[in-house]
Amino acid sequence: MEFADFLPSLAAIAGIIFVLWGISLAIRDVSIVDIFWGLGFVFIAWFSQWMAGHSSTRTMLLVMMVTIWGARLGIYLGRRNWGKKEDYRYAAMREKHGSAFPIVSLVTVFSLQGLLMWFISMPIQVAILKSIPWHPVVWFGVIVWSIGLFFESVGDYQLARFKSDPSNQGKVMDRGLWHYTRHPNYFGDFCVWWGFYLTAVESGSWWWTILSPILMTFLLLRVSGVRLLENSLRSRVDGYDEYARITSPFFPLPRSKSSASS
Predict the structure, then answer these.
(1) Which residue range forms the structural domain that includes residue 15?
(2) SS3 133
(3) What confidence category does residue 260 fall into, taking pLDDT thresholds of 50, 70 and 90?
(4) CA–CA separation, 229 vs 155, rounded Å?
(5) In whole angstroms, what is the distance from residue 35 CA to residue 212 CA?
(6) Which of 114, 133, 152 is the last residue before a domain boundary?
(7) Do residue 146 and residue 256 come from a single domain?
(8) Do 213 and 193 meet the contact criterion of CB atoms below 8 Å apart?
(9) How far is 100 from 2, CA to CA, in rounded Å?
(10) Which of 76, 100, 133 represents a domain boundary (last residue)?
(11) Residue 193 sits in the same domain as residue 250
(12) Who's near 47: CB < 8 A, 6+ residues apart?
């Protein structure tokens, strides 16, 4: 396989991202890009399958895993954001850049997300385009992915139920999975992407596709995930510092009452 083999998917993603950007300008809401994140990977998986023109049991399993994960995430975010105002992060960008915001959002939000989506999906694209055969490691990948899907979906459900009760406004969510980790949904996403990689991994020249789950782990821990959300929660949720002191920041662990977990 050569670099040119991945250009059709890059072009397809670019086209969808451009259309999505145009829609965001029409409705004045950049938040729709978040809903497309999971669905974008579903598109890439099925597009790669169409480009390959053939499949194996392993690659079709991978396509279905991506579809289940991406569709769930897209539906969840779509329902959560329906009828709400634009996310405060994008609203702040809109106010800051004024008339230049359309171009700024195209470059720094939509184009960046499209490039990340294309690169992070490399293990999926390689596996599908090469139609790699079955290997015992697939079972391990499916198990890791299943654990991730459980933590991500159950964590999101528990948080949504907690927020639906007006009496919980401004309070710490420390129930269910949130009792063992401050971010069960991010931990779940971490497992999902390592599960994808293990299901798609193949020995040989494409070993570098491990950069995909490594990059996702970095983003979850240091960029758009835990660090960004923690800074926000500490400033607006009463008792969050104490919750953070005794609750694991990422990996699910029993609570500590004597020392900080972070």
Answers:
(1) 1-133
(2) coil
(3) very low
(4) 15
(5) 20
(6) 133
(7) yes
(8) yes
(9) 38
(10) 133
(11) yes
(12) 8, 9, 12
Give the pair of three-digit tokens for residue 181.
């980790």
Residue 101 and residue 199 in one domain: no
pLDDT (tens digit per residue) in 94-133: 999 999 999 999 999 999 999 999 999 999 999 999 988 8
Residues 7 and 122 in one domain: yes
pLDDT digits (tens, 9 = 90+) for 66-92: 999 999 999 999 999 888 999 888 999
Q: How far apart are CA 123 and CA 212, in angstroms?
A: 7
Split into its structural domains, the chain has a count of 2
For the record, the structure tokens of 36 come out as 């497309």
Q: Dihedral angle at the C-alpha atoms of 246, 223, 169, 149, nearest 10 degrees?
A: -80
Contact 254, 180 (CB under 8 A): yes
Residues 63, 76: Cα–Cα separation, whole Å? 20
- DSSP 8-state class, residue 166: G
Separation between Cα atoms, residue 244 and residue 52, nearest integer Å = 47
Distance, CA of 71 to CA of 152 (rounded, Å) = 13
Residue 172: its H or E element: none
What are φ and ψ of residue 133, in 5° steps? -75, 175
Residue 104: C-alpha distances to residues 90, 93, 116, 117, 149 (Å): 11, 9, 17, 19, 34
* pTM (predicted TM-score): 0.92
Determine the residue type at 208. W
Query: Which residues fall within 8 angstroms of residue 160, CB to CB, at 6 or more apart?
Result: 80
